[in-house]
Amino acid sequence: MDRQMDIYDLLYRLGVTANYTGFFHIALGVQLCMERPERLLLVTKCLYPDIARRYRTSWKAVERNIRAVGALVWERNRPLLEQLAGYPLTGRPSSAQLLAILTYSLLSRCAGPPPAEQSEPDGAELEGGPFPLPHAGKKRSV
Predict the structure, then answer these.
(1) For the chain, which residues make up each domain, given as ranges?
(2) Which CATH number fits domain 3-110: 3.90.1030.10, 1.10.10.10, 3.30.360.10, 3.40.50.2300?
(3) Closest to 52 (Cα-Cα) out of 98, 94, 21, 79
(4) What pLDDT, in 10s, does the model give residues 13-41?
(5) How far is residue 131 from each of residues 15, 80, 103, 114, measured CA to CA in Å?
(6) By C-alpha distance, which of 131, 138, 139, 142 is closest to 42?
(7) Whose CB has fewer CB within 10 Å in the chain, the N or C terminal residue?
(8) Whole-angstrom distance, CA of residue 108 vs CA of residue 85
(9) Quick check: 26 and 72 in contact, CB under 8 A?
(10) Stretches in the chain below the pLDDT threshold 50
């Protein structure tokens, strides 16, 4: 089964169906984050605009639709969401948190390491890890 079908299957299990616009927005967002997990660091600046371009809408509409999906999941299948998160959730996760939970739950089920790790040369994890932060590798002036 390919990644897109895995994402769709997970969303259906969480109670989200394809008649919600946010279904496709979050599915693409998870797919993009699975390809490059560092996108989760800049969802508003990078991820939402990329999804918006694909669906010819605004980044604000993308965030709103993903937020609506989050509310739906929270209402319909909170136990599965908490199982995917790996800890009890004290409140509804933000859109970015929901994307992170879904992305990492799917990545953890994959047989191999995420694509970012496969292409890293030996020792690269010492410089910034497989998911470097934006400031990794830059020298700070004191």
Answers:
(1) 3-110
(2) 1.10.10.10
(3) 21
(4) 999 999 999 999 999 999 999 999 999 99
(5) 30, 26, 14, 10
(6) 131
(7) C
(8) 11
(9) no
(10) 1, 111, 114, 117-142
Tokens describing residue 117: 């790790």
C-alpha 8/C-alpha 14 separation (Å) is 10
What is the 3-state secondary structure of 19-68?
Answer: CCHHHHHHHHHHHHHHHCHHHHHHHHHHHHHHHHHHHCCCHHHHHHHHHH
The answer to whether residues 105 and 84 touch, using CB atoms and an 8 Å cutoff, is: yes
The whole-model pTM stands at: 0.76
